[in-house]
Amino acid sequence: MQRPVSAAQVSLATVAAEAGVSVATVSRIVNGETRRASAQTVTRVQAAVVALGYQPNHVGRALRRRQSRVIAMLAPNLDNPAMAAIAVSTEAALRAAGYVMILCDTHDRADLQDEYLQAMRSQRVQGYVLVSAVTSPALSDALARGEPIVFVSRRNPEGGAYVGIDNHAAGAAAADYCLARAITEPAVIFPAQGSSSTAERVAGFVERLIARGVEADRIRRASAPGLSHLQVGYDAARTLVSASAGGWPKGLLCVSDMMAYGAYRLAVERGVAIPETCLLIGIDNNPLNAWIAPWLTSVHIPYPDFGAKVVEQLTALWGGTMPEDILLPHSLEL
């Protein structure tokens, strides 16, 4: 027989034709019901499934059974590649587990986050994934009701299941990198509206420098208001390098790659060579860096691995267990 072009085109009918049985028989076997078929038939169907690469449509089956298989992800500023990478990873993992994901952009605003939480609750979603959540009344109410919520990248002040990296250690790794290159007075820039993740990165950076002998008052720091990390990076770098502040440091930690892009824009405008004059260090290791920012050193966060861990945390919550935090490994990429 002629084989399908790709596994995506393989249906129950394709498997049935390959195995020489009815579609109903294939449907029962792939759904775990094997009592009505002989051992030889089960083996033949299973071999056809493997040979053809058939993937059962868990979502379609759940919808036919009228089960709630919808998960809501709330994330801020989806124009940030890091947010998009988390969303892509989580959607793929949920889809593989038989769930549909709804994605909402909160724009880092508590009122929008509450609006979406209330709307999703009315849709009877089975769980929530909150990326870089902010404190809000509806979130507190949802936690009080014991609704299954997994926090990603930014911890919730009220506690809850978490997936992310050790942000404190990531900041410390940036400090070690600077010191290893004889940059003894590096600086750091960060958003004025600090989150737990950015605060931990700054703290890890500063504390490691002090622990290794750098005087606290020699560690320059600057922040800027706003939600766009591009603009915050630009504005904070401008504050840092103003004439009264001492010019460009030899090394500068930006708590996200997007902030590093903003700082780089200022450097280009002022004719400052990067990284020759100032080594810029970001955190994220955005895949775009290889294309548009070869000058950037960045702490790699394994966003493609987040999705499976989010599903793992949700599964534990559905089982009535509050899981331990899941911290994925990070590494500093040149």
From TrEMBL:
Keyword Transcription regulation: yes
SMART domains in UniProt: HTH_LACI
Segments forming domain HTH lacI-type: 10-65
InterPro entries given in the database record: HTH_LacI, LacI/GalR-like_sensor, Lambda_DNA-bd_dom_sf, Peripla_BP_I
Alphabetically ordered keywords of this record: DNA-binding, Transcription, Transcription regulation
Gene Ontology MF: a single term: DNA-binding transcription factor activity
Keyword Translocase: no
PANTHER family: HTH-TYPE TRANSCRIPTIONAL REGULATOR GALS (PTHR30146:SF109), LACI-RELATED TRANSCRIPTIONAL REPRESSOR (PTHR30146)
Stated name of the protein: LacI family transcriptional regulator
